[in-house]
Specification:
The chain is mainly α. The chain has one domain. 79% of the residues lie in helices and 1% in strands. It contains 15 helices and 2 strands. A two-stranded antiparallel sheet has the order 1-2. The termini are far apart.
């Protein structure tokens, strides 16, 4: 018998082993989602145990323990859903790998939450419900716990269907629903709710318009010129300076307020200084990077990659500073009401509560973030470093403009609106270009060449519209269940 021929017994064994290997691989693939769920349960349990130790572990502190578990659950969902808006464009443009994006986001989100997250937060979600509307501290505690739980459930469902939604709006809806269930319609500040409803339209429109305008500028000044590299040497430092100015002003508002009083004019001045400084610093760096590059669009991507990565990191820092309150604000209110037997609109947040929010966001990002990062970065429209940079820049500029005007906007809506703006602008530009070249396309071909996937567009917009009412209904139900149990 030839040596390369195996005996029948060995052939049978090989077939059996192959079947077992395929079965093992299928089992591992099927059980992969359960790993994330199990790790999440471990984190929620650890948060509850930490709350039990720090609150004394008495039967009276059970409410704080349960609230800590709800806050940890909410933080996990913020990391799974919201952070994708900051890192998705960079990953979609291939400026960052998925692993690199998650590592940078986890570090920057935690740093933003712990360093600039704030020691005083409006726990009644920006005046949505008046604290004096609650008859006693116990009812207030049930309302805050219901708001946390309902917001977390809704964001979890949105992540499962692949829709990036505003966690801020989810918390607002949760507080509103619990407030109505606890104290009636008169407890809600309907003026604030009207402003938040207006932000459903304002946020994505502002983000989309600014991103489209930035992309139009890049096409006009850099891409569609004879010497692309020379144009990039001139204009990329200007764009970097603009980005630095926007982030400098925003981070001054968020971070320096703990050290000194920061007004909007002072923040804008700090941003202007940062923009000029980093713009000048980037001139020799861009010149050095551009040496030897060919005069083609592909070469321009190299010059935008590093600014895009830095902008994504800064967006994550700003998001951690801003949105950690969505997880820990109501939790801090519960801790305060439990310890003082009173109700307050603003309370100091204990450090252990901030740690739960910061760590929870990072853990949720690592376990469940890739799904939404892929959605925002790849599945809505095709991004490259220039387009993704326009999205990041529009997010920073829009947040600053909205803060100056006093408009309540959503960072999630701004970032995703920027992605839509870039995609729809490219659709419009390509259709105009084809028309000007005298080559009109049939309707079927124009439909096939849509650069924004309409199915994702409709899913995301529908999720945005129903976030507040859905979270409100869930919260009212959760409040009644918690009150009955309590």
């Amino acid at each position: 018998m030839p040596q390369n021929n195996q005996p029948p017994a060995w052939e049978t064994l090989d077939r059996d082993l192959n079947r077992l290997s395929r079965l093992e691989m299928a089992s591992m693939y099927a059980s992969r989602p359960l790993i994330g769920v199990g790790a999440s349960l471990v984190f929620v349990t650890v948060a509850a145990l930490a709350a039990a130790v720090l609150s004394g572990g008495t039967p009276q502190s059970l409410v704080v323990i349960v609230a800590a578990a709800f806050g940890a659950y909410m933080a996990l969902n913020i990391g799974a859903n919201d952070v994708a808006n900051n890192m998705g464009p960079a990953v979609g443009a291939n400026a960052l790998s998925m692993v690199g994006a998650i590592a940078i986001a986890a570090i920057c989100e935690s740093a933003g939450a712990l360093l600039a997250g704030g020691d005083v937060v409006s726990t009644i979600s920006k005046g949505i419900v008046a604290p004096e509307s609650f008859i006693d501290a116990r009812v207030f505690i049930w309302a805050m716990m219901a708001a946390l739980l309902s917001a977390a459930i809704w964001v979890n469902l949105a992540t499962w269907i692949g829709a990036p939604v505003s966690t801020t709006h989810a918390v607002v809806g949760g507080v509103m629903g619990a407030g109505i269930a606890a104290a009636g319609l008169t407890a809600v500040n309907w003026g604030s709710m009207s402003a938040i409803a207006a932000s459903w339209v304002i946020s994505p429109l502002l983000g989309g318009i600014i991103a489209a305008a930035m992309l139009a500028f890049i096409k006009w000044k850099i891409i569609y010129v004879e010497d692309k590299i020379a144009a990039a040497r001139k204009w990329v430092p200007v764009l970097i300076g603009l980005m630095s100015a926007a982030f400098g002003a925003y981070l001054a508002l968020k971070g320096l307020k703990h050290v000194m009083k920061i007004t909007m004019p002072l923040a804008l001045l700090i941003g202007a200084v940062a923009g000029v400084a980093f713009g000048f610093i980037s001139v020799p760096l861009i010149r050095r990077q551009s040496v030897g590059l060919e005069n083609r669009n592909r070469s321009l991507k190299v010059l935008f990659r590093l600014p895009l990565i830095i902008s994504a990191a800064l967006l994550s820092f700003a998001h951690g500073a801003n949105d950690v309150a969505n997880a820990v604000g109501p939790l801090a209110a519960v801790v305060y009401a439990h310890d003082s037997a009173g109700v307050a609109g603003e309370v100091s947040i204990p450090i252990w509560v901030m740690v739960i929010g910061a760590v929870g966001i990072s853990v949720g990002l690592m376990l469940f973030g890739p799904k939404l990062i892929g959605m925002v970065g790849n599945q809505i429209t095709k991004l490259n470093p220039m387009r993704a940079y326009c999205v990041a820049l529009s997010a920073a500029v829009t947040v600053i403009a909205a803060s100056a005007l006093g408009l309540p906007v959503s960072s999630t809506h701004i970032a995703v609106g920027g992605v839509f703006g870039v995609g729809f602008f490219r659709e419009w530009y390509m259709s105009r270009r084809g028309f000007s070249e005298g080559a009109p396309m049939p309707r079927q071909e124009r439909a096939r060449r849509k650069l924004v996937r309409r199915s994702h567009f409709m899913t995301i917009v529908a999720a945005w519209v129903i976030t507040v009412p859905a979270a409100a209904v869930l919260s009212a139900c959760c409040f009644m269940v918690l009150q009955a149990i309590g």
